[in-house]
């Protein structure tokens, strides 16, 4: 079976600092993969190399068998890659619906062009509305982002990614900054994402993350230290040593 995501020998250093050391990882179609590791382990820089925000020094990243590294970010997105960010990247003075439409326009690789957007309006707006509905914000499209709660913004960001109908979704700490109630709601939402979307998630909230993930990769100083099923990784003494600091 062709993996949804296959990373081979991925390496990156910033001067003397190795942030990704020969990472090799295969993620099956439909899998829910959790990536954990201490602060600075290289989790976000790994995502940045998958998306093309950062160029690795060596290695390969394949999406359903197709090499991504020579493609620009927007072309990777067009191949079915979407991500959310640890730090939200929204337009607060615009509406939720417009934020999703703008994400869709980014997907299509078009410069922001008002008239062109207007011509495509109904199609784009329908897609955007569907995505908002999928995250429970269907009735909130006309509200300004600035007037929403943090939890609603996290949902909006998810809608922006889902609107692109990704095959592979990278979630960078989707629960960061949320209250316990909001965390429960967003994690319940994550379980409703259909299996034709493969999900790789970085998350520090272990309760939620462990419940969600089927396979777990532990990174430490840019290197894969432990990988396996939830039970295997939790039982592995290296996980405790590295991640829990025991
Ligand atoms: N552009 C850069 N230039 C130099 N060093 C960088 C750059 N980007 C990241 N780093 C360093 O790379 C290391 C890995 O950072 P990264 O953000 O990937 O860690 P992380 O595992 O996502 O951490 P956290 O859990 O805190 O988000 C850190 O030491 C960070 O300071």
List descriptors.
alpha/beta, Rossmann fold, 10 helices, 6-stranded mixed β-sheet, 4-stranded antiparallel β-sheet, binds adenosine-5'-triphosphate, 246 residues
Write a structural description.
With 246 residues, the chain is α/β, with parallel strands linked by helices. It folds into 2 domains: 1-80 and 167-246, P-loop containing nucleotide triphosphate hydrolases (Rossmann fold, 3-Layer(aba) Sandwich); 91-165, no CATH class. The protein has 10 helices and 10 strands. The chain has helices at 43-51, 73-78, 96-107, 114-119, 121-134, 150-162, 180-191, 206-212, 230-235, 237-242; strands spanning 5-14, 17-27, 32-36, 58-63, 66-67, 81-84, 168-172, 198-202, 215-220, 223-229. The strands form 2 sheets. It has a 6-stranded mixed beta sheet with strand order 6-7-8-3-9-10, with helices on both faces. It has a 4-stranded antiparallel beta sheet with strand order 2-1-4-5, covered by helices on one side. Helix 7 links the parallel strand 7 and strand 8 (198-202). It is globular and about 50 Å long. It starts with a strand and ends with a helix. Adenosine-5'-triphosphate is lined by residues 14, 17, 19, 37, 39-45, 86.
